[in-house]
Write the structure tokens for this entry.
Amino acid sequence: SQKIEQNSEALNIQEGKTATLTCNYTNYSPAYLQWYRQDPGRGPVFLLLIRENEKEKRKERLKVTFDTTLKQSLFHITASQPADSATYLCALKYSSASKIIFGSGTRLSIRP
Amino acid sequence: DAMVIQNPRYQVTQFGKPVTLSCSQTLNHNVMYWYQQKSSQAPKLLFHYYDKDFNNEADTPDNFQSRRPNTSFCFLDIRSPGLGDAAMYLCATRPTGGSGTDTQYFGPGTRLTVL
């Protein structure tokens, strides 16, 4: 079965630096990959989607890359701020499936 | 504002006492999902509706049931909650037409405690 791996360790970054989060998957590549933000005690909020044939997507301070050779997506937050502190979930959708599969997330802390 | 609403936000029940969680949406989306999320774990899909068509995940326990009486509302019934059912329950919706059909819109969740 497909497996998604995100850094289980929390990531602590100094304000103003670029935060980079990793999502690795096994087996075949998904049709697309999404990143969600989840704050404590709240539901996930969609941030970005990148498709199998895309290398990079940007939205304001956010950037997502998708490398089907490495079976990896990287999620970058540039000029990080304490308000960016949250858990970030990676989710994959396969063409053959009707659902998306979530990773367990990486907790990001931005210190002032 | 269009949104996904879950009630209650916090639910405490006793071991074995049936409980119902509710979800409503003003987005008019065709698809609705129920997820279970335990601490520091990935959201786990329990079931979803495509309009009235119910789709149960193979590993969802029989203890969990769902109802969708109309487009706007969806309920999660836990017939006999066990201690292992304590979790955050997330409702999500997704449109099937127009742009954004790949995006799920989540409610704030209901935190279930089983005593």
About this structure: Chain A has one domain: 4-111.
